[in-house]
């Protein structure tokens, strides 16, 4: 009986490690998507930025999104935290410090990043 318990504990540990690893990979991907988008934002090039954004009916075009972000001079300062959205395992919530108009906002901004067939995309 002791062996079953010991092996059962090892199996549980392996399962939890795999889950933790999967969560870690998702949060890293979400964080990277936010950083990539903001690194490319100054160019305003929707050929580059478009594939980084969630698109679809009812969502603004890349051009409108970029125009709005440039008008508000929104820039990424640093990522504070990323975690898998508890309502959707294919979405990551990324809390980040941003500046607007050259001044850092007091409260972090929350970005939603979603996994789609083509990869991780930012929803703005």
UniProtKB/TrEMBL annotation:
Keyword Signal: yes
Superkingdom of origin: Bacteria
Signal peptide coordinates: 1-25
PROSITE patterns recorded: PROKAR_LIPOPROTEIN
Keywords noted in UniProt: Signal
Name by which UniProt lists this protein: Lipoprotein
């Amino acid at each position: 009986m002791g062996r079953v318990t010991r092996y059962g504990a090892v199996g549980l540990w392996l399962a939890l490690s795999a889950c933790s690893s999967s969560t870690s990979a998702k949060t890293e991907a979400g964080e990277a998507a936010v950083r990539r988008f903001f690194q490319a934002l100054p160019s305003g090039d929707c050929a580059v930025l478009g594939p980084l954004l969630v698109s679809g009916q009812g969502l603004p075009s890349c051009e409108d999104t970029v125009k709005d972000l440039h008008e508000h001079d929104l820039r990424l300062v640093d990522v504070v935290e990323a975690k898998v959205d508890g309502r959707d395992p294919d979405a990551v919530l990324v809390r980040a410090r941003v500046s607007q108009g050259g001044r850092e906002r007091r409260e972090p901004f929350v970005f939603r990043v979603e996994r789609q067939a083509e990869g991780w995309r930012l929803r703005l």
